[in-house]
Amino acid sequence: MDTGVNSGLKKGHMSTAQRVGTFVVVAVTSLSSLASAQTKKEFKYTVGSGATVTIANEYGPVIVKPSSNNQVIVIATTQSDKVEVDETRNGDRVLLRSHLLPGATPTNRSVDYQVQIPADASLTIRSTNGPLHAEQLRGDVTIEGDSAPVDVRDISNAHVHVNTLNGPITLANIRFGHVEVNSIGGDINLLSVTGPLVAVTSTTGKISYNGDFGIGGDYKMSTHTGNIEAVVPADASVDVTARSVRGDVENDFPLHPKAHTTFLPQKGRSFVGTAGQAASSVLLRTFSGKIRLKKSQ
Question: Mean pLDDT, to the nearest integer, of 238-248?
Answer without folding.
Answer: 95
